[in-house]
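Dear Dr. L.,

I hope this message finds you well. Following up on our conversation about the binding site, I have prepared a predicted three-dimensional model of the protein together with adenosine monophosphate. For your records, I am including the exact sequence and ligand specification that went into the calculation, followed by the C-alpha cells. Please feel free to forward this to your student if that is useful.
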Amino acid sequence: MTPLDQLADSLHNYEDEPAFCIGDKYYSYSNFRKTIAGIQQQIAETGLTGHRNIGILAYDDIETYASVFAILYMGHAFVPVNPLHPLERNKEIIHQSDIALLLSGKDDTIARNLSSEKTKLIFTGDQSSQGDFIQVPLSPYQNAYILFTSGSTGAPKGVPITINNLNAFLDAFFSIGYKVDYHDRFIQMFDLTFDLSIMGYMAPLCIGACIYTVPPDAIKYVHVYKLLEKYQITFALLVPSILISLREYFPEMNLPKLRYSLFCGEALYEDIAMEWSKCIPGATIQNVYGPTEATIFCMLYNVSRSGNNKSLNGILCIGKPMKNTEVFIAGDNFKPMPSGEKGELCLSGDQVTSGYWKNESINKEAFFNAEGSRYYRSGDLCYCDADGDHYYSGRIDFQVKINGFRVELSEIEHHARGFLKNHDVVALAGETEGRTAQIYIFAEQFHAGFDTLNDYLKTKLPSYMIPSKYFSVDKFPLNSNGKVDRKALVKMFS
Ligand code: AMP
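The resulting structure of the complex is given below.
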C-alpha cells in the first residue's frame, strides 16, 4: 500500500477524530471526507475529462484543504494559487499551467478576476455532500501537483511533482522512525504555494493526526507561538527565520509537549537552535534540507541537544540523504569532488521532479545524467565530510531566501529594468538584520524618486520580493570580467 493509499484510508478509518483545527474550529475526518466528496461532485458535474491541472485559490479554510484531495484522488493535478499575490502573477501561473477549473472557498473578486472562459470558477463553499469520496487508481507517473517558484527569467517557473515523487517523500519521511500516531498534533505554518505545507498536512493525514493551521495573513511568529502553546503541538516543521522573531520570547517559552522540532527552507544557525532547545525540553531537533524540485525535503541532520554539532560558519550541517535520495558533490564538468572539497550539491532518486513545466531550456541546464542516474543541480555550494555528512556553504547563483521564501534576484531585476527602461538595475540581498535578509535595489543614474518603481513592483511580485531599500548609483563598480561587482556595490552602501 502506498502512503497516498494509506492517506485515503485514514479518511475512513479515523471518522470521529479531528483532522483539522482552523481558526479554533475543529473538523473531523468524516467532515473532511464529506467536504472532499462534495467538491468531487462539483468537479464531476463540469464534465472535465482526462488528467488536468486544477487551480486552488489557497485560503485558510477547510474547502482549500479538501480541494487538494478532491483533485488528487480524481486523478488530476492541483496547482495552488495564492490570493494575496498580484493578479498578473497569478494569471501567468494559470496561463502557464493551462488551468481548466479554479476552485475557491470564497466567492470574491479575486476569484472572479482570475476566472475566464478557459478557466471556469467553482465556488467550493457551495457544495452539498451527497455522494461518497471518489478514489480512482493513480499512475505513479502522473502529476500530483505543480508549484511555481521564482524564475530567473522574470516569470515564475512550474515544478511538477508526480504521484511517485510524493509517495517517495512520504515513504522516506515515515522511514525516519518518528513515533507518531493519531494522538499527535501537527502545526501547518506554510503558505500553500510553498511545498513544506504539503508535509504539514499530508504526513499527519496519513496517520490520522490533527493539523493546526496558521492563517496566511497572520503575523506568523505570533500565531505559531500561540498554537504551539495553546494546543500543545507535538510535531512542528518551521522555517528558521521564525526563531529569529521568537527569540525575544524564549525566556518565557516552555513547550514540554513538543516532541519533534524540524527546520527547513534556509540555513539553521547553531546558536539559535541551541537556545531554542531550552524551550522544548522533550523534543528531537532536526535540520532538514531540500529544494521544491526534490519534493519537500530529502536530507536530514539530527541536532544534538548537548552541543557538539557539525556546522560551518555557524550554520548547522544538513546531514545525509534520506531513504529515496542519492547525492554527490559536483566539481567542474560534474566530476565528483573528494570529501572535504566544495562543489555543487546534486540530487537524484525518486523524489526528483521529471523537469520544469514546459521549460526545456531551463531543464537542459538544471538536470544531467551521470552513471545511469538523473541528477538535479541544486545550486547549493556544499561539501561532504568523511562520515558522509554535508555542509551548506551558500549559493552558487543569485537565488536568496527571504523568510524561507525562495527569491531569484534576477526576477526582481527583470521587472525593475522593465519599468526604469534606460537605467541598469541590480538587486541584492543586503546585510542581514538578525540574519533576516533584505532586498536592495541599485539603479544606475536614476535620480527621480523610487516610489513609483516600488508601486509598480507591488503589482508584479509577491510582498516578500518587494525591496526594502532603493539606491541611486552614478556608476556601477565593475570586476575584472567587466561585470557589475556586486560585493563592491554592497560595500559602497554599508
Ligand atoms: P525551496 O525550493 O523553496 O524549498 O528552496 C530550496 C533551497 O532552500 C535550497 O536549495 C537551499 O538553498 C535552501 N535550503 C533549504 N533547506 C535548507 C537548510 N536546511 N539549510 C540551508 N539551506 C536550505
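In brief: The first strand starts at residue 18 and ends at 22.

With kind regards,
A. P.
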